[in-house]
Amino acid sequence: MASLVYLPESTKKDVSVDNTGLPSTTPNDVVNHEPAASVAAGANEPAAVSAPCQQVAEPQPVPPPGLPLGVQRHRVWFYCQMVFRMVFYPWMGYRVSGSEQFNNLEGGLILSNHQSMLDPLLLPLAFSRPVTYLARSTLFEKRFLGAFLRKVYVVPIDRDAARAGSLREMQHRLEQGFLVGIFPEGTRSVDGEMGPLKPGFLALMRRGKVPVYPAGIAGANLALPRGKLMLRPRRVRVVFGKPILPEEIAAYSKQQDAELIELVRQRIAACAQAAEAWRRGGPAPEGPL
């Protein structure tokens, strides 16, 4: 378990704010943090430190006041984000629309179409804070890969076990202020077109009590086609739509699950169509869809 590093008040200094509304970050400012499934009972105050960058022993302290756990950034995540931006922006002409509407200090659920293995990397490029995903637990059995996945906020899921535990963990992440990404199709598209949605995301959508943002990705299947390993220089676009608010979700009863799934499908499809039109040379969407 990675330790946390906090700077005492005496070492803090004024920082500028980036275009996402979060403080501009340098490698020295990044919190060396790995999210825990829960915070130890009674840990209401951060552990005291006597010197800058002192390592804090278990149990992990809660984040500093005003900085939710979901917007803290691990050093590994920070450097990966820098590398991905240096590659994807010039190589694939990566562009995004609609990310300005996100509340930078609150959790949110992102539901997107799924074209390529690149998709979990493309969505977070729009933000200066992590997007957390689920991944099969067997990936975490490899020592170094498992350690890396945890540091970039991926949550293991055992497909042979009950999904209740994974659902609780993702709900907990939302409460901590994380953005949580889900691909409701459940698998990558074969031809780039959007497939039917599986209903598994509905439970988290109802229980999360956070805004649900539809998202559309276009061009990822051309940049990294299914079954290929080499990245190709193809234009990629990502469009985020207006959120579906908790009160809108609550208006759908359990008996109306099919209608709620259809609403989500239509909203994701609209974002994907706008992203594809933009990728083909059309204008960027004017504001969230």
UniProtKB/TrEMBL annotation:
InterPro entries: Plipid/glycerol_acylTrfase. It comes from the Bacteria. Pathway: Lipid metabolism. Keywords: Acyltransferase, Transferase. GO terms for molecular function: 1-acylglycerol-3-phosphate O-acyltransferase activity. It holds the Pfam family Acyltransferase. Coiled coil: none annotated. GO terms for biological process: phosphatidic acid biosynthetic process. Residues 108-220 form the Phospholipid/glycerol acyltransferase domain. PANTHER family: 1-ACYL-SN-GLYCEROL-3-PHOSPHATE ACYLTRANSFERASE. This is Phospholipid/glycerol acyltransferase. It comes from Planctopirus limnophila (strain ATCC 43296 / DSM 3776 / IFAM 1008 / Mu 290) (Planctomyces limnophilus). The lineage of its organism: Bacteria, Pseudomonadati, Planctomycetota, Planctomycetia, Planctomycetales.
